[in-house]
Amino acid sequence: MTAFARRNGVLHAESVSLIDLAARFGTPCWVYSRAALEASLAEFERELAGLDALVCYAVKANSNLAVLDVFARRGAGFDIVSGGELRRALAAGADPRRIVFSGVGKTAAEMELALAADILCFNVESAPELDRLSAVAGRLGKTAPISLRVNPDVDAKTHPYISTGLKENKFGVAYEEALALYRHAASLPNLTISGIDCHIGSQLLDPAPFAAALDKILTLVDQLAANGIVLHHIDLGGGLGIRYRDEDAPTVQAYLQPMLQKLRDRHLQVLLEPGRRLVGNAGLLLTRVEYLKPGEVKNFAIVDAAMNDLARPALYGSWHDIVPVVAPQGATRPWEIVGPVCESGDFLGHGRDLALATGDLLAIMSAGAYGMAMSSNYNSRPRAAEVMVDGADVHLVRRRETAEELYALEQRLP
Ligand SMILES: *Cc1c(COP(=O)(O)O)cnc(C)c1O
C-alpha cells in the first residue's frame, strides 16, 4: 500500500498532490489516506476471517470522526478510554455493542454514560473500580459486562513510557491477584463476567512478548474455569508496531498467527485493540519551511509545524522520516528541523540531510497515530487542519482552529 508516493517528482496522497493540499488548506496540515486506513484494517480482517473475532480500534491513536467513520463502516469496534471518546465513537456511527472501555480512572459519570449506551465490555483495572461499577450499574438497574485487565508481567522491550505490562506500571491488576479479583467480581451484584484482557505496551516489534503474555493469560483462563468462572472472550490488546525508519515491523499475520494457534479450540471470542498499526502510516504532517538559519555548529530549518502539533519527537525522542514534497535538487546539508515554539525541545528531526530552500514543503511521515490526538495549543497555536484523501477526492475533516476559538471559553475580570 503506497498511499503516499511521488508522481513526476511531487509527493501525492493517493491521487492528490501535496502542493495542491497546502495551497488549499494551508500548513501545517494533517493528511490522511482513506485507502491506507482501509488497507491496514483489511490486514487484520484477513487473519481473523472465519473466526469469532472483533477488531476494536484504539480511538486514542487518532480520534477524528472521519477516521472512526472509515473503520465503523467496515464493522470495526472501538476501544475507548474516556467518556469523551465514547461520545466521539457514537457520533462517528460506532455500534455501542462493539465498544470496550479501557482505562484506570473511569469516573461514575463515565460508567453511567457507557452503561446507558449498552457497550460490549468494561475492561476493569482495579478492585475499587469493580465495586464502583457494581454500585453504578445497580443504581441504573443495569448489569455491567466486565473483563479484568490482567498484568501478565512480561517485558515488551519498548520505550519505558509506552511499556504497560510490567508489575511497576499503573495499568491492570497483578497476575497473582487476578483469580481472587474475579471471585470478588462474581460475588458482586449487577456485574457479569464476560472476558479477560491485557495490553502489554506500544510499538512492539517482536511477536514473542504477545505470545508469552497469552500463555500466562490462558493459564489463568483455565484456573478460572476450574473455579466455575467461564469466560466468553479474550482481549489481546494492541501494541503492534509499525515502521517509522528501518524497523522490521512484523506483518499482522506474524503477530497474530502464533496467538491464534494457541486459541484454537478454545471457544473464546478474540478481541484486539490495535491503534498505531491501523493509522500510523496512513497519515503525514505537511509543513512549510519558514526560515533557514545555517550556522557554524548547526543548521536550523524553522518550519511552521511544532511540538504542539507533533509531540512524539519531543516527548519520546521518536524518529519520523521528513521528506521534501518536491524532489530535491542541489547540495544537501544536515538540518535541525525545528518549530517556532519557545522550547529547546521543540524539534521534529535532528541532522536530516536535505537540500532546503525557504518556502519548501516538507512531509513528516508516519504521523497518523498519536499525532493530532496528542497535539496541544501551547504557545496559543491553533491546531492544524485535518484532511482525508480518498482517491482523487479531498475532504476537510477538521478545519483549522482560529485564535479566537482558543480563548473563547475564557473571561476577563469583571
Ligand atoms: C493505547 C492502548 C491501545 C492501543 O495501543 P497501540 O500501541 O496504539 O496499538 C490498546 N489498548 C489499550 C488498553 C491502550 O491503552
Automatic annotation (TrEMBL):
<dbReference type="InterPro" id="IPR022643">
    <property type="entry name" value="De-COase2_C"/>
</dbReference>
<feature type="binding site">
    <location>
        <position position="276"/>
    </location>
    <ligand>
        <name>substrate</name>
    </ligand>
</feature>
<keyword id="KW-0210">Decarboxylase</keyword>
<keyword id="KW-0028">Amino-acid biosynthesis</keyword>
<feature type="binding site">
    <location>
        <begin position="273"/>
        <end position="276"/>
    </location>
    <ligand>
        <name>pyridoxal 5'-phosphate</name>
    </ligand>
</feature>
<comment type="similarity">
    <text>Belongs to the Orn/Lys/Arg decarboxylase class-II family. LysA subfamily.</text>
</comment>
<feature type="binding site">
    <location>
        <position position="343"/>
    </location>
    <ligand>
        <name>substrate</name>
    </ligand>
</feature>
<feature type="domain" description="Orn/DAP/Arg decarboxylase 2 N-terminal">
    <location>
        <begin position="36"/>
        <end position="279"/>
    </location>
</feature>
<comment type="function">
    <text>Specifically catalyzes the decarboxylation of meso-diaminopimelate (meso-DAP) to L-lysine.</text>
</comment>
<feature type="binding site">
    <location>
        <position position="312"/>
    </location>
    <ligand>
        <name>substrate</name>
    </ligand>
</feature>
<feature type="binding site">
    <location>
        <position position="316"/>
    </location>
    <ligand>
        <name>substrate</name>
    </ligand>
</feature>
<protein>
    <recommendedName>
        <fullName>Diaminopimelate decarboxylase</fullName>
        <ecNumber>4.1.1.20</ecNumber>
    </recommendedName>
</protein>
<feature type="binding site">
    <location>
        <position position="370"/>
    </location>
    <ligand>
        <name>pyridoxal 5'-phosphate</name>
    </ligand>
</feature>
<comment type="pathway">
    <text>Amino-acid biosynthesis; L-lysine biosynthesis via DAP pathway; L-lysine from DL-2,6-diaminopimelate: step 1/1.</text>
</comment>
<comment type="subunit">
    <text>Homodimer.</text>
</comment>
<keyword id="KW-0456">Lyase</keyword>
<dbReference type="InterPro" id="IPR002986">
    <property type="entry name" value="DAP_deCOOHase_LysA"/>
</dbReference>
<feature type="active site" description="Proton donor">
    <location>
        <position position="342"/>
    </location>
</feature>
<dbReference type="GO" id="GO:0008836">
    <property type="term" value="F:diaminopimelate decarboxylase activity"/>
</dbReference>
<feature type="binding site">
    <location>
        <position position="239"/>
    </location>
    <ligand>
        <name>pyridoxal 5'-phosphate</name>
    </ligand>
</feature>
<dbReference type="Pfam" id="PF02784">
    <property type="entry name" value="Orn_Arg_deC_N"/>
</dbReference>
<keyword id="KW-0663">Pyridoxal phosphate</keyword>
<feature type="domain" description="Orn/DAP/Arg decarboxylase 2 C-terminal">
    <location>
        <begin position="31"/>
        <end position="368"/>
    </location>
</feature>
<keyword id="KW-0457">Lysine biosynthesis</keyword>
<dbReference type="InterPro" id="IPR000183">
    <property type="entry name" value="Orn/DAP/Arg_de-COase"/>
</dbReference>
<dbReference type="GO" id="GO:0009089">
    <property type="term" value="P:lysine biosynthetic process via diaminopimelate"/>
</dbReference>
<dbReference type="InterPro" id="IPR009006">
    <property type="entry name" value="Ala_racemase/Decarboxylase_C"/>
</dbReference>
<dbReference type="InterPro" id="IPR022644">
    <property type="entry name" value="De-COase2_N"/>
</dbReference>
<dbReference type="Pfam" id="PF00278">
    <property type="entry name" value="Orn_DAP_Arg_deC"/>
</dbReference>
<feature type="modified residue" description="N6-(pyridoxal phosphate)lysine">
    <location>
        <position position="60"/>
    </location>
</feature>
<dbReference type="GO" id="GO:0030170">
    <property type="term" value="F:pyridoxal phosphate binding"/>
</dbReference>
<feature type="binding site">
    <location>
        <position position="370"/>
    </location>
    <ligand>
        <name>substrate</name>
    </ligand>
</feature>
<dbReference type="InterPro" id="IPR029066">
    <property type="entry name" value="PLP-binding_barrel"/>
</dbReference>
